[in-house]
DNA sequence: AGAGTGACTGCAT
DNA sequence: AATGCAGCCACTC
């Protein structure tokens, strides 16, 4: 009786993001087929805090590699989590973003 | 049932 | 090149 929702789909992809890598909302949206709705992905992430198992939302950043979700995590929690996985973050921005970028539409397409 | 909100992105100026 | 505006879909009140 699973009341599946678009959110569940987003969570599933987010949980597949390997440690030390990050992706963008648009990339996930595109993989889900709703590339025009990148907002929905971020919106789903907001509810990810209530998702089980927990979703590594800290690995999801905006198109610029900016930690837009940091404010929602509270303090520097997001940046701390990323650095703990080997991702370098400076001024709320992911360093070597294109290097650590993980595109589900490509990685999961294999 | 209708209107509002939102952790974004792309195009236009 | 940089800034501003509009679009988009699902969820909640």
TrEMBL record:
InterPro entries from the UniProt entry: ATL_DNA_repair (IPR052520), MethylDNA_cys_MeTrfase_DNA-bd (IPR014048), MethylDNA_cys_MeTrfase_DNAb (IPR036217), WH-like_DNA-bd_sf (IPR036388)
Any one GO molecular-function label of the UniProt entry: methyltransferase activity
Any one GO BP annotation for this protein: DNA repair
Pfam families named among the record's database cross-references: DNA_binding_1
Highest taxon above the source species: Bacteria
Keywords carried by this UniProt record: DNA damage, Methyltransferase, Transferase
Residue ranges constituting the Methylated-DNA-[protein]-cysteine S-methyltransferase DNA binding domain according to the UniProt record: 6-87
Annotated protein name in UniProt: Methylated-DNA-protein-cysteine methyltransferase-like protein
Protein species of origin: Mucilaginibacter auburnensis
